[in-house]
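RECORD TYPE: inverse folding
INPUT: structure tokens
STRUCTURE:
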């Protein structure tokens, strides 16, 4: 295969996704906004890895990085959108407009910029796919998760639109909705948010009675990005251990 481009590849979950993709793709672009050192470390640890700045709040940064990667590697087979904002868990009544604007601008509008830059590449090469990391909160809502779930609901809707409209060009779009995972922002929440007793109670809500790992989410992303999922598009794969049942 050609190159995989991971938006948000410098984060805890993003780096797990990069490692999983490296087993199947010739090149993996570890896209980062601010985490240059982490991105370079991840890129150096995998075969065919390269770190590349891709600031989803800047349309020029997104378009230039996508174009550079396509030119450098002769195409891009998949774009993974795993970027996001480091947010807390406030209730809706405590969220101000600035917080809404930040998360929607970075995640939802950021994804539209990625789509605008990648679609012409995919059309030229007559194929390609998007895999977006969204949230299980849009299927089983835990209080305090609206800042995360609202923009990701928009990302899901756009993913389905891409699948329906661009399928004629061999372009697919799918989503992975993680449950509670011990990676990235989820790992930070497990350490700093709520008491161990509350987290243990949450664990008992999960059919498998444990939280997920970054590697488990990464495997789902890798599957949807691969040729093994050639006839899957417009779908959200919920990877939550049974949290949403």
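DESIGNED SEQUENCE:
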């Amino acid at each position: 295969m050609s190159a995989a481009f991971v938006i948000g590849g410098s984060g805890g979950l993003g780096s797990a996704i990069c490692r999983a993709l490296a087993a199947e793709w010739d090149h993996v672009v570890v896209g980062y906004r601010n985490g240059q050192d982490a991105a370079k470390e991840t890129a150096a640890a995998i075969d065919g890895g390269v770190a590349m700045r891709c600031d989803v709040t800047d349309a020029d940064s997104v378009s230039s990085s996508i174009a550079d990667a396509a030119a450098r590697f002769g195409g891009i087979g998949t774009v993974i959108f795993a970027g996001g904002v480091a947010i807390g868990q406030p209730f809706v009544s405590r969220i101000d407009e600035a917080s809404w604007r930040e998360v929607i601008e970075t995640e939802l509008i950021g994804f539209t910029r990625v789509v605008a830059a990648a679609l012409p590449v995919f059309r030229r090469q007559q194929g390609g796919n998007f895999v977006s990391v969204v949230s299980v909160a849009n299927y089983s809502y835990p209080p305090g998760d609206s800042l995360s779930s609202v923009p990701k609901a928009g990302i899901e809707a756009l993913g389905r639109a891409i699948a329906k409209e661009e399928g004629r060009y061999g372009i697919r779009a799918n989503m992975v909705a993680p449950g509670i995972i011990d990676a990235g922002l989820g790992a930070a929440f497990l350490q700093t948010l709520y008491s161990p007793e509350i987290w243990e109670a949450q664990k008992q809500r999960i059919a498998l009675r444990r939280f997920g790992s970054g590697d488990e989410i990464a495997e789902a992303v890798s599957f949807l990005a691969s040729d093994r999922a050639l006839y899957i598009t417009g779908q959200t794969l919920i990877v939550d251990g049974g949290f949403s049942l």
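NOTES: The first helix runs from residue 12 to 22.
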